[in-house]
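Here is one chain, start to finish.
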Amino acid sequence: MDKLVTELAEAGLIQFGLFGEQKKPFQLRLDLLPSYPQLLRDIVAASVPFVRGFDRLVCTADSLPLGLALALETNIPLVYSRGRGQQAVNDLVGAYDIGHPALLLVQTLDDVESIEQFTKQAQQVGLGINSLLAIIATEKTGFALDIEVNALLQLTHMVDHLAAAGYLPDGHAQSIASWEANHHPG
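Its structure:
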């Protein structure tokens, strides 16, 4: 997985500095992933082992490129959200019915509350979401829902790898760890 971390950094899909009102010391730009087809293929290849046993893939609007690429690779039908506000699940697009185990795909595991809300709403319309796969997990907090949670990459491991490989300036890895401890205790 270190290769994926390096590829993300070299493509500029993980950036370091101070971002937003919270002065976050990193920024993920996974929305640009479709612009890097080989990197998207590498992420899909790393994701394939996690989709075994699922009849449907479900993805949030921002993870549509991953969902589509993974559906094409695995031949598993995709259901996706157009992402229209809080009731995004009301605009789910795709063929689905009750009784099919489904895997939820997200870009980042950084807003557990929002993901749990999406999952509950999807379950209410019959999607059997019982597992989640994120490209990157930035949050340490657990889920209240009884679903399996997996991530291809953990932010702490990414930072350690990038610091050791010289992609981060001195002290920046520590500032990310401090920010993470203050914003996602657990």
